[in-house]
What does this fold into?
Amino acid sequence: MRLTIESTAEVVDIDGVTVRTWHGRTAGNVPVLVYVRSLSPQSRDPAVAAEFGRELEEIAAPRNMTVSILPSVRMPTAPAIGGNTFDAVAAWRAMPDVVRDMIGALAIVERISDLGGCIAQETRDPEAWRWFEAAASESASRLSEIVTAVLLGGDSETMPPRPDLRPLGIAQCRVCGCTEEIGCADGCRWVEPDLCSSHGPFLAEPEG
It folds into this structure.
């Protein structure tokens, strides 16, 4: 396997070992995360060592942040409900506890920070807005990386299966996926608990 990797300023703790996170891509353009503990040049030539040291200084300084995540978690997409849909509840239950904890915490931070950023804008508080904006951006980015790695095998290019919202208690048409919030373009109504009128039997309007 061939990888092209680039350093980030993010340092994580994996099983008590502090490592730096590198972002990379395989020869097939699949995004990956690489965790590096140390680097050293293969050659002992002083000129090579000096050049290596110069390039090493260009790496961004590590951020003061420590998290605990699994370095490599692979899990198949949750069982399909109907063709190209998947059950998010089943996917969640199949995840290791450490991954569920990380995703849950990141989702909370993203939602709270998004709300806080809106309020900070309305109250014209630039310091609070910057804090919330940074937290929302970082949590959303990390959340995307973990979910893509765990559920999609790192493939962020292929169309993922569509989420089935019914296990979450949300009314959704089993054919087109429309909901109460987002209905069909020409309008629709429920004819069954999980079927909208655009795809169900047309009921005659009562006369008179």
Notes: Strands lie at 3-14, 17-26, 31-36, 85-87, 162-164, 190-192, 195-196.
